[in-house]
Amino acid sequence: MRLARSHFPFLRHLIISGGFQDIYLLAETFPDIERLAFKTRPFGDGKNIHVVLAEIDQGTTLAWPKLESIAIDRMYSHAVDLALRNAIIKLQQAGRPLRMLMLPRDTISKTDTKALAQLRKVVEIEPFRDDWPKPFESVF
After folding, report:
1. Strand runs (DSSP E) across 90-132, as ranges?
2. What CA–CA distance (Å, rounded) separates 64 from 33?
3. Residue ranges making up the domain that contains 41
4. Which of 24, 45, 112, 129 is the most buried (most CB within 10 A)?
5. Cβ contacts of residue 129 below 8 Å, gap of 6+?
6. Dist. CA 7–CA 13, nearest whole Å
7. What superkingdom heads the lineage (predicted)?
8. Nearest C-alpha neighbor of 53 from the set 80, 16, 11, 90
9. Main-chain dihedrals φ then ψ at residue 36, nearest 5 degrees
């Protein structure tokens, strides 16, 4: 499956709502994304954050080379571990300017302080917030 190249060259923020099987297709279609957000059961199909981050790195070209932040509105606190830290490092080492990870408040508060401290050594951690305009929210 292949999606068409984006006709939205200025699109910088992509919100993925629900599961998406082939995340690399989104990366090819919208290559200039700087802020990636996962909302409402992003990992409902059995995937966890580690798998999704690994999928970003699986294409033949550098997916989302301008990616600065990843926001996740729901996840389990046990998912913040060394594997998540290593997945972030791998994305950074590939050339992405990834500097921020936005996690749910309850995940941050329930996460082991040592694991959170290790993650903070490689990326800023902030509580998830959905502060982008939603002009079409009432339409759909």
Report:
1. 100-103, 124-127
2. 6
3. 13-127
4. 24
5. 71, 102
6. 14
7. Eukaryota
8. 90
9. -115, 125
107 within 8 A of 78, measured Cβ to Cβ: no
- Lowest-confidence range among 18-22, 80-84, 117-121, 122-126? 18-22
Task: Count other C-beta atoms under 10 Å from residue 128's C-beta.
Answer: 20
Q: Token pair for residue 138?
A: 């009432």
With 50 as the cut, is the pLDDT of residue 42 above it?
no
Residues with Cβ within 8 Å of residue 87, at least 6 apart in sequence: 49, 50, 53, 54
CB 91 within 8 A of CB 56: yes
**Is 96 part of any domain?**
yes
Q: Which residue has the tokens 């290559």?
A: 31
Residue among 114, 113, 89 nearest 101 (CA): 89
Taking the whole predicted model, whether its pTM rises above 0.85 is answered as no
> Which structure tokens are listed for 130?
């959905």
